[in-house]
Amino acid sequence: MADLDSVTHRKRVLVVDDEPKFCYVVAGFLLGRGYETLVASNGDEALQKMEQFNPEVVLMDIRMPGRSGFEVVKEARARFLPPRIIMMTAVDSSSAIDEAKNSGADAYLCKPIDLNDLERLIATI
Q1: In 3D, which of 6, 3, 24 has the Cα closest to residue 15?
Q2: Which residues contact 6 (CB under 8 A, 6 or more apart)?
Q3: H/E element, 107
Q4: 3-class SS of residue 112
Q5: CA–CA dist 3, 45 (Å, integer)
Q6: pTM value?
């Protein structure tokens, strides 16, 4: 029987983006690094999976069909024990960064994302 102290906790990460290839590349990379991962393709699915999966970190695209990432973050902060949230977008603008912070995001990344930088960020938040 394993000693509880020897069992390492694997952070659960939810990857939310309407581009399936992006989700699976990022989720596959993180899975290979020992994280538990799950993907969602829109805001409603993200909220549902947050409730079921209880991720510690959510990587959230800003621009998606239906609810924007900003809307999802605000609702998640109101409904759940909030995970750490990293917003991401292809748009590198100070207004998007400000809106991400105002919506409750913990960090912000611009696409294309360096996967090693993402892993370091996840480990520190």
Answers
A1: 24
A2: none
A3: strand 107-110
A4: coil
A5: 36
A6: 0.87
CA distance to 36, 51, 58, 84, per residue, from 81 (Å): 18, 9, 13, 10
Q: Quick check: 64 and 44 in contact, CB under 8 A?
A: no
DSSP letters for 28-97: HHHHHTT-EEEEESSHHHHHHHHHHH--SEEEEES--SSS-HHHHHHHHHHHSSPPEEEEEES---HHHH
Distance CA 28, CA 60 (A): 16
Alpha carbon separation from 44 to 27, 48, 49 (Å, rounded): 19, 6, 9
pLDDT tens per residue across span 105-125: 899 898 899 999 999 999 998
- DSSP letter at 8 equals P
